[in-house]
């Protein structure tokens, strides 16, 4: 697959190009800022398709510039947020400049970069360190919990036509016990959000995290991105399409942005599920995804999604390179066993304060069985509805979201290899709970001072886990574990399926994060976490009390929200 994609990429590279630059890393503070600006000023801003993430730095700069010269009355918080976007994306601004009053020797001549080179529109280079240090404790755990991250990121643009980004971090961490369960137990162990890892002092982990890509435009409105990173599609805190929960993956992305339309195609090489052991060539599988977003009106976006996961013994299925035709039609014409899904999403901004959004994913469906209402196993779908309300009182933003997924969503059967489930590196590509769950999310974000932010999160979820059958002594399959092979013969029951079936779990997750930003992208953090898992199987009950403090620079705060 790699040699064919590289060949295609190099061919397109020879065309006339007008790059739109590098992208803002997921989790950056800019996402909440752009959300706020979109809700309040979306009717006058340059069209921003907020369901397609990561955002380009050029788009963020255009938003900041449009508002800065709009003559709209802006309060101190809005000016601070605009200045953040200006400082963070200065290479795309001509009329606005970002400078530090007192540079640190020859460094930090602008707030957002340790070192930079700007040669008008011919060349721009920015270099930054990546640092994160945190220490904490968990009640009932004698070990000290910590995060130790060191690394660097580099981004540069040539003639505003070709852009490159690269970052790498070296990490050692010891997490709370509920996260340790993911990499210390089971046959398909993994680190949430990461790929290869090794053990560090028994209960810790040590891993590299490289990310990088090159971005060009083959035409004025058509861009290509080729690299190794994550993608996110949707306006919610969670996504049923693609989320930032999984490890990074290798991909080629084509983005068409013209008039009120954004059309994105992603071709990805994924890692099939595997059992951790000695050095080995990890099995591959592939994914192809389309998402069309249409700005119907200045306040309303609608989107359509389709995706397919497949395997051809380490060979890409070239039929799926077609960026237009429906994947379901290809799958049927090939007589393939591939796993295809379709989806719909929408977003509406109202009253300059409120945003409503929704997302729906459909894996398999039989209308006749749905009408019978007997809980047929293969009616597999998920649904999200949510709302964001900014400035409930000045500087206080709220978000509420409800997610539900039927049992067996994202699962598939392609024989003993189970190659077409919706995962990579043993991790869900979409929602971290997989399937067979209800989830309610509440988030408040309060900027007490312009550089002091308090974020409170509450997650309540009900889901069903597999267990060992008391009579047969075999592992049950109730549809929450999407790594399992799924057919009418392997499910726990053809009828009578409902959300939360199996070993029912009620879980509460409470998180309080206080972040102080004394300099641009430098944060001092204090976090309190409480997580309670109450299972039908008493031995699986868990209760976590965690408190940690730390500092970070040019990196998002790492949290395990499941």
Q: Do you know the CATH architecture? A: Beta Barrel
> Into which percentage range does the β-strand content fall?
35-45%
Mean pLDDT level: 91
- The rounded distance between the terminal residues' Cα atoms is 34 Å
Please identify the top-level CATH class.
Answer: Mainly Beta
CATH topology: Porin
Count of domain modules: 1
Helix count from the secondary structure assignment = 7
Question: What's the total count of β strands?
Answer: 24
Structural class: mainly beta
Apparent shape? globular
- Name the CATH superfamily assignment: Porin
Low-pLDDT stretches? 1-18
Helix share of residues? 10-25%
For the report, how would you describe the main beta sheet? 18 strands, antiparallel, barrel
Using only C-alpha atoms, the radius of gyration works out to 23 Å
Structure description:
The protein has 562 residues and is mostly beta strands. It is built from seven helices and 24 strands. It has one domain: Porin (Beta Barrel). The radius of gyration is 23 Å and the shape is globular. The longest helix is centred in the first third of the chain and has 13 residues. The protein has an 18-stranded antiparallel barrel, surrounded by four helices. Helix 3 packs antiparallel against helix 4. The N terminus is likely disordered.
């Amino acid at each position: 697959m790699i040699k064919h994609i590289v060949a295609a990429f190099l061919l397109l590279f020879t065309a006339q190009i007008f790059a739109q630059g590098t992208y803002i890393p997921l989790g950056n503070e800019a996402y909440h800022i752009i959300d706020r600006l979109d809700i309040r000023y979306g009717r006058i801003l340059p069209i921003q398709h907020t369901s397609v993430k990561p955002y380009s730095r050029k788009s963020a700069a255009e938003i900041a510039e449009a508002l800065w010269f709009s003559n709209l009355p802006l309060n101190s918080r809005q000016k601070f947020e605009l200045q953040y976007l200006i400082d963070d994306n200065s290479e795309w601004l001509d009329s606005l400049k970002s400078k530090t009053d007192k540079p640190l020797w020859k460094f930090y001549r602008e707030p957002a970069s340790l070192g930079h080179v700007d040669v008008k529109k011919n060349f721009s280079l920015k270099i930054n360190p990546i640092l994160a240090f945190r220490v904490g404790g968990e009640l009932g755990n004698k070990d000290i919990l910590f995060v130790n991250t060191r690394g660097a990121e580099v981004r540069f643009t040539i003639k505003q036509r070709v852009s490159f980004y690269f970052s790498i971090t070296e990490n050692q961490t010891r997490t709370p016990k509920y996260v340790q369960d993911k990499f210390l137990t089971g046959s398909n162990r993994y680190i949430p959000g990461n790929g290869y890892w090794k053990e560090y002092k028994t209960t810790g982990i040590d891993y590299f995290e490289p990310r990088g890509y090159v971005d060009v435009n083959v035409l004025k409105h058509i861009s290509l991105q080729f690299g190794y990173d994550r993608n996110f599609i949707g306006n919610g805190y969670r996504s049923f399409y693609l989320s930032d929960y999984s490890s990074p993956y290798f991909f080629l992305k084509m983005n068409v942005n013209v008039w009120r339309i954004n059309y994105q195609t992603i071709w990805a090489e994924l890692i099939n599920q595997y059992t951790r052991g000695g050095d080995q060539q990890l099995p591959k599988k592939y994914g192809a995804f389309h998402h069309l977003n249409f700005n119907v009106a200045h306040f309303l976006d609608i989107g359509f999604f389709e995706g397919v996961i497949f395997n051809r013994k380490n060979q890409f299925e070239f039929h799926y390179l077609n960026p237009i035709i429906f994947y379901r039609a290809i799958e049927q014409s090939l007589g393939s066993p591939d796993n295809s899904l379709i989806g719909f999403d929408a977003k509406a901004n109202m009253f300059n304060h409120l945003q409503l959004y929704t997302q729906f994913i459909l894996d398999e469906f039989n209308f006749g069985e749905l009408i019978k209402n007997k809980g047929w196993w293969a009616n597999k779908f998920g649904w999200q509805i949510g709302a964001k309300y900014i400035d409930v009182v000045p500087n206080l933003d709220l978000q509420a979201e409800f997610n539900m997924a039927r049992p067996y969503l994202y699962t598939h059967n392609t024989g003993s290899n189970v190659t077409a489930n919706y995962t990579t590196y043993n991790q869900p590509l979409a929602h971290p709970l997989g399937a067979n769950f209800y989830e309610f999310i509440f988030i408040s974000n309060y900027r007490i001072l312009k550089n002091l932010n308090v974020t409170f999160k509450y997650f309540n979820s009900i889901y069903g886990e597999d267990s060992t059958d008391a009579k047969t002594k075999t592992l049950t399959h109730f549809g929450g574990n999407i790594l399992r092979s799924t057919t009418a013969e392997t499910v726990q029951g053809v009828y009578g399926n409902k959300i939360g079936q199996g070993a029912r779990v009620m879980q509460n997750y409470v998180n309080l994060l206080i972040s102080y930003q004394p300099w641009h992208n430098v944060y001092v953090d204090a976090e309190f976490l409480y997580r309670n898992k109450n299972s039908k199987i008493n031995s699986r009950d868990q209760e976590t009390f965690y408190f940690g403090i730390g500092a970070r620079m040019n990196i998002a705060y790492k949290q395990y929200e499941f």
